């Protein structure tokens, strides 16, 4: 079985899905619906096989992914509901699922409705940020309508296997409860933390890495988040109550000088936090880090690469830690083993580059 | 004037300070006090000129930096207080300043007391994580004891200029209030957010980038943070009250369906968050990003570097976005201009490497 896929909205998520699906043996063609310049870019990147018009493309698609904002779903479903083939699958990539499943329920019974939420993103918006590996090792939740046949679900799993995501099935209700706790409430909290500074320059001037990390999501698109929050309103109010309750308990313990209680809360948080699966590196082998200080001039990356390649040492990770114009920079290199790292350091030093093993 | 510097505790912060101070024309020698193996590592990295014993080294130092945990300061000051030279400067790198200044006040009047807090860190602990540019463009707060002469403060500023940090003077009280808001409260909040999941597998499985960023600091050392929190107890209780109050207001607005109010809070947070100075890239020129998909095999970094070097295009930033063993990876390259980026993409494509401009 080889299917025609339609991606409506070829942005960061739709484009990344296209790049992955194009490599699936189950896929015949990937058609995208979006503005002309987006379609041109997506074609150039190899994210789709061609562009199409919404109503005609919907009529020939076996699997449709809605990758536009949730607020547009109602209008799109109205336009395509009489055209989608019986036996086709409709899915989406929206951040909440109960509302999406309500919209999907307007489609004929003969269309299979499987809500989807790949839990990965990027600060880059639009198709230019699309990445064939965006979903790799990320959670990808499916929320099938009750009564969806097992073989249809199995096919959807197989189809999405090309993304490398960890596909998991949940009810729309449970999904929305979980994302409230791990996404919506953290978002609201980040906003509250930022607003505590009242925009005061002295606060911002001192904001170090911890604050920047904790509040990064507060820099996201406010309209988008306003939409997400009000599509999950009731659950969010409940979860906010729980957070406020926990913060009050923590405040009481600190005020009472109960160091043991505070330490216990911090330790429990650390234990849990350390168990979050690492996405980016989960698939990479363990490796050893080298740090080296190099002059900042053209060709230095090539030179580092060549020195290690000469010794058959693979660079599995690389990061420019700091660069200062005219004064060199600090680069971290990951190599497969400690033996490689020792050999690499010796070789770099022999080439006059200051280097040491970091871990 | 050329001074002898003593660094007590040559870990991540002490080591980074040493690497920077060693390049200052104001510094004659940098002596470190720590365990033997740490001293050996610091010497190999060029972070110090030699190791010493606490009491003898304190007697010959012109400037002393305490870079051990704050809880050890009392004991160290007891050991050195009769030995420090009149006219010497004592400073530190601790996270709260009122308690430190109280400990410093046990020293003779003839010793200048200037509390310090460089607001930068790394997830790597110990001297192996030390980085000559760790403090570059980061805030570095000085809290001089009342009555510290202007010329001594000016000298301290000049001495620390080698770190590239943005040095700022505050009272110890104001410092502790600011760090509560931008560091201690975010930390406690991250812990509360993590603990809301109660360690449930389904929550953790779904934790995407936003949750990981927001709660990253909850993975820090709990004992260290317990110490920091209880060295700033009263201020933290006040600030927690403020946060709880803000969260209650947000909850009311969501419950009441007041979308305008929520949007306003999110927008205000975004505006403020976007104003936080970027540390790591502040010193780098603007650059354009290329994304390329490359086979995962030894020498690929060298090859990319060589292709761009051939065209005299400098790589100012590089990041391995995703790697999949046996199936290639996605690499982001930063080059100085859009013209360079276009030329680089053309050249990479001519060499059979899929590449496009991202920004």
Descriptive report:
Two copies of one chain form a homodimer. The first copy, chain A, is an alpha/beta fold and 359 residues long. Chain A folds into three domains: 3-170, 3-Layer(aba) Sandwich (Rossmann fold); 175-247, 6-phosphogluconate dehydrogenase C-terminal fold; 288-357, 2-Layer Sandwich (VC0802-like), CATH 3.30.2130.10. The first copy, chain A, has 15 helices and twelve strands. Chain A has helices spanning 12-21, 36-45, 54-60, 73-80, 98-104, 150-160, 172-196, 201-206, 209-215, 222-230, 233-255, 259-274, 279-282, 300-310, 338-350, and strands spanning 3-8, 27-33, 50-51, 63-66, 89-92, 112-118, 139-144, 166-169, 288-294, 317-323, 329-335, 354-357. In chain A, the strands form two sheets. In chain A, strands 3-2-1-4-5-6-7-8 form an eight-stranded mixed beta sheet, sandwiched between helices. In chain A, helix 7 crosses helix 11 (233-255). The longest helix of chain A has 25 residues, at 172-196. Chain A is globular. Chain A starts with a strand and ends with a strand.
Summarize the structure.
The structure is a homodimer of 359-residue chains. By secondary structure, the first copy, chain A, is an alpha/beta fold. Helix content of chain A is 47%, strand content 18%.
Quick one: which chains have the greatest interface?
A: A-B, 139 and 139 residues
Strand order of the largest sheet of chain A: 3-2-1-4-5-6-7-8
Query: Percent of residues of chain A in helical segments?
Result: 40-55%
Which of globular, elongated, flat, extended, rod-shaped describes the shape of chain A?
globular
Q: Main sheet of chain A?
A: 8 strands, mixed
Question: For the terminal residues of chain A, how far apart are their CA atoms?
Answer: 48 Å
The total strand number of chain A stands at: 12
CATH hierarchy: architecture of the largest domain in chain A: 3-Layer(aba) Sandwich
- Which fold name corresponds to the CATH topology of the largest domain in chain A? Rossmann fold
